[in-house]
Amino acid sequence: MGQGMGRAGPPHSAGTDMDETHTIGATSIDRDEELQRVEAALKRLDRGQFGHCLYCGDRIDLERLQHDPTVESCDTCRED
After folding, report:
1. Which parts of the sequence are dksA C4-type zinc fingers (predicted)?
2. What pLDDT does 78 receive?
3. Is 4 part of any domain?
């Protein structure tokens, strides 16, 4: 082992582990949120509500659903 390197690795990589942990954590959160959206869409499908806006009940545009099947609102009600 080189002098001053210890277990943490070379000095230039000191922040890398923290950055990777943060990125992995963010990815995990993103996956959890996406899973929740998919599960909610499947529940709407089971109840016969898939493709209808949760806020006003209008039909959601087919093109929008094809782009993102987990979408919950119509063009009028959507929040960007």
Report:
1. 53-77
2. 83
3. no
Q: Is 28 exposed, middle or buried (0-12, 13-18, 19+ CB in 10 A)?
A: exposed
pTM score: 0.62
CA separation, residue 69 to residues 1, 22, 24, 57, 64 (Å): 53, 29, 25, 16, 8
Chain-centre distance of CA 46, in angstroms? Answer: 22
Query: What single string gives the DSSP state of each residue in 5-67?
Result: TTTT--GGGTTHHHHHHHHHHHHHHHHHHHHHHHHHHHHHHHTT-TTB-TTT-PBPPHHHHHH
Within-domain flag for 54: yes
Please state, as a whole number, how many other Cβ atoms lie within 10 Å of the Cβ of residue 65: 15
CA distance 49 to 57: 9
Could you read off the pLDDT of 24-52 as tens digits, one per residue?
666 888 999 999 999 999 999 999 999 99
